[in-house]
Amino acid sequence: MTDGFDIIVVGAGTAGVPAAAAAAARGLKVALVEAADDIGGTLVLSGGSISAAGTAMQRAAGVADDADTHFADAMRINHGTGDHVLLRDWIERAPEAIDWLLESGWTCTPFEPVFAPEHDLYTTPRTYRSTEQGFSLIKAYRNAIAPAIKAGNLELFLETRVEDVIVEDGVARGVVATHKGEEIRLEARAVVLTTGGFGGSKELWQEIHGVVPLRYHIDTVVGDGLKLARKAGGTSWFEDTLLPSFGGTRDLGAPAAAWVHTVIVPSVRQPWEVYVNAEGERFMPEDEPIIDSRERAIMRQSDWSFWVIYDEAIRNEAPPLFKWEPEKLEQLFEGFDEDYVRADSLEELATRCKLPVGTFTNTIDTYNRGQKVGSDMFKRQHLPAPIANGPFYAVRHYGYSITCYPGIKVDHDLRVTGANGEAIEGLYAAGEAIGIGFLGHSFLSGAIVSSAVTFGRKLGQTLLA
Predict the structure, then answer these.
(1) Distances (CA, A) of 243 to 311, 376, 448
(2) How far is 402 from 236, CA to CA, in rounded Å?
(3) Alpha-carbon distance 267 to 269, whole Å?
(4) Which tens digits make up the pLDDT trace of 388-400?
(5) Which of 30, 249, 398, 403 is deepest in the core (most CB within 10 A)?
(6) CA 252-199-266 angle, 5° bins
(7) What is the mean pLDDT of residues 106-121?
(8) Rg of the chain over CA atoms, in angstroms?
(9) Which residue, among 394, 386, 306, has the nearest Cα to 344 in the 3D structure?
(10) How far is 92 from 73, CA to CA, in rounded Å?
């Protein structure tokens, strides 16, 4: 047993590093344990958007904002769902987290609050775009922990996976971990689980949701925190909360990975294409502006998937749909990927996409008739062109997961709780390990990263005070 630690932080990602840095800055001795070979966790995949209200950047940009306005926006967007106490706590603490990031060398561009169209908009610009996406935060994190490591207050254990939380007489007193096959036992007065969600675990997705969608994840983030909490007597929450992001495409050669490779947000690019589901039917107005409605529409479709249909004229005349270089796209349509189909006729396109030919051709004909007279059956407003001239194109898109709504159940002090609601003394959790369900059944712009940083800071500042 290696003793002498005050706090063990399990997971050196979005919430874990701020927790460890804040605790070490108070003079506590901290062990930061990470399964991967470097810090950062899912920040390597993150866009690095962060939201907070009432910041110095807002004031410098002439934007009046406060926690009450931010909270009201959150309630409007999430339809009153989530844990309002934790949500409010994050919102009130978030500006201080922004200050800490800036002090640690984090940069955002254009260094002012912005509206973020990938999610339903706040009434006030309060989202900040990291200069180099999640890597901007990782750089700041390295700066934040370097002095503590040098001073000996923080010991970083990489490539070390925690296998168990040591619980004695109902109190968390340390962890058992493995490093390159060797068992390590660390003792402390408090343990913080910041291991991220369970995006990389097909088993947990199947157990909790009964579905395994395309997921944007890293292989080391497989729900370790949830498994550890359960073994220690904890439980989970928000297991009935699920919402996919809209319109991801499969990454070539990586069937379990998805991301947005097309410009499919109407506020950024109005659609020229038509969306059809596995039954060959349209299921929504393609220019639906409410992101929440788009996400719920895709969740109602078979396999959370749909085809984006267009023709040669649209390919030539419309603003670019794809972010990829034309050469890569041509390679995909040449037959290297089944999700990218090109055909000379609509009938052939339907057959190759395994869609009912009659239903599909009728769907396109009905759309074209409405487009011609400017009256779409789904009340779509943007009707620039018919889909009439071959060759025709189909690209399969998916509802995909970038985060986990369920997670470790905690109380309002972020203490891990059991099924009886009682807290496990000495055991805490933050970040995506607790899920994002407390934010509500929706996506709040910049909230996932911001709340993880904020609650990590909170634990580092308050534990063992």
Answers:
(1) 31, 28, 14
(2) 19
(3) 6
(4) 999 999 999 999 9
(5) 30
(6) 60
(7) 89
(8) 24
(9) 394
(10) 14
| Rounded distance between C-alpha atoms, residue 235 and residue 41, angstroms | 23
User: Do 339 and 324 form a contact (C-beta atoms < 8 A)?
Assistant: no
How many CB atoms sit inside 10 A of residue 319's CB? 9
Token pair recorded at residue 424: 């496990």
**Contact at 8 Å (CB) between 111 and 68?**
no
Going 44 to 47 to 48 to 51, the CA torsion angle's sign is negative
Please give the mean pLDDT across all residues of the chain. 94
In one letter, which amino acid is 66?
D
The pLDDT of residue 1 is above 70? no
Q: How far is residue 457 CA from its own chain's centroid?
A: 20
Q: Is 304:401 a contact under the CB 8 Å cutoff?
A: no
Can you say how many angstroms the Cα of residue 395 is from the centroid of all Cα atoms in its chain? 23
Q: What is the mean pLDDT of residues 92-99?
A: 98
User: pLDDT tens digit string along 328-366?
Assistant: 888 889 977 789 999 999 999 999 999 999 999 999 999
Question: Which 3-state string (H, E, C) describes the chain?
Answer: CECCCCEEEECCCCCHHHHHHHHHHCCCCEEEECCCCCCCHHHHCCCCEEECCCCHHHHHCCCCCCHHHHHHHHHHHHCCCCCHHHHHHHHHHHHHHHHHHHHCCCCECCCCCECCCCCCCCCCCCEEEECCCHHHHHHHHHHHHHHHHHHCCEEEECCEEEEEEEEECCEEEEEEEEECCEEEEEECCEEEECCCCCCCCHHHHHHHHCCCCEECCCCCCCCHHHHHHHHCCCCEECCCCCCCEEEEEEECCEEEEEECCECCCCCCCCCCCEEECCCCCCCCCCCCCCHHHHHHHHHCCHHHEEEEEEEHHHHHHCCCCECCCHHHHHHHHHHHCCCEEEECCHHHHHHHCCCCHHHHHHHHHHHHHHHHHCCCCCCCCCCCCCCCCCCEEEEEEEEEECCCCCEECECCCCEEECCCCCEEEEEEECHHHHCCHHHCCCCCCCHHHHHHHHHHHHHHHHCCC
Question: Exposed, middle or buried by CB within 10 Å (0-12, 13-18, 19+), for 418?
Answer: middle
